[in-house]
Amino acid sequence: MQKHRFYLKGSAAEVAWLNRQADAGYQLAAIHGCTYQFEATPTAKHVVAEYLPKTTLDLMTPVFKPFATHVFHDDLAVVYSPVTPEQRVVNDDAQYRLAAYRHARDVALNWLNGWVLAIWLLMSAAIVLSSQLQATPLLTRILLTSLGLGAALIVLGIVIGARAALRCHRKVCRLIQVTGDDQDTWKPTFHVLFKHQAALPDTE
Question: What is the per-residue pLDDT across 83-118, written as a single tens digit (0 to 9) for each?
Fold first, then answer.
C-alpha cells in the first residue's frame, strides 16, 4: 500500500503519523520522496527517526537493517528504525537535526519568494498584454479578475510559506539552545562608547 504525504523527513509530525499507521496495522517498508510504502501486518512496530551522516548510514544499514532511509542532498540522512514500547529512546542527533531544520527553513523561504515573484511577473505580463489590446468592458473585467486572483494567490503563498518557515524557525531556535551552535544566526551588535578619556583604551 502506498500513501502520499508531504512531511519533513525525520520530523516529529512525520514519526507520529507513521506510528499511527503502525497502530492501524501498516508497517513502514520504504520511502521515495513524498511516497510512503507500507506492508499490512498484525505486528506492526513503531518507528523512531534519527539523523546521521550518509557515511554512517552506509556502514550501519547492513548490520541494523532499518525499515527505511532517506538521504538529503547535503550528505545528511535520516534512518527509520523499529522500537518497542519497552525501549527507552534517547536521541543524540541534535546537531544533524539542526542542519536539517535550517535547510527546511531556507527551502520554505525560497519557495515563498519564488511563488510571489512568479505570480507578480504573471500579473505584470497581463497588464502589459492588456495595454496592447483595444480596451473593452469584457477585457477590463478579465484583467481585474486576473489581478484579483493573482493578489489572492500571493497572499495564500505568503501565509503557507511563512507558516512553514516559522515552524522550522522555532525548531531551529530550540535546537540552537540545545547544541550551542549559533553559526550564521543573527546576533546583536554591541557598541562601547568612551567619553572624557584622554588615552586610548587598552584592548589587549
Answer: 887 777 777 888 999 999 999 999 999 999 999 999
DSSP assigned state of 82: E
The string of DSSP codes covering 22-59 is: HHTTEEEEEEETTEEEEEE-TT--EEEEEEEEHHHHHH
Residue with cell 518557515: 165
- Residue-wise pLDDT tens digits, 136-166: 888 889 999 999 999 999 999 999 999 999 9
Question: How many whole angstroms separate alpha carbon 71 and alpha carbon 91?
Answer: 19
Q: How many CB atoms lie within 10 A of CB 104?
A: 21
Of 41, 172, 30, the residue nearest 103 (C-alpha): 172
DSSP string, 87-125: SPP----HHHHHHHHHHHHHHHHHHHHHHHHHHHHHHHH
Instruction: Report pTM.
Output: 0.78
User: Helix 137-179 crosses helix 94-131 at what angle (to 10 degrees)?
Assistant: 170
Only one residue has cell 518497542, namely 84
Q: Give the separation between CA 124 and CA 118, rounded to whole angstroms.
A: 10
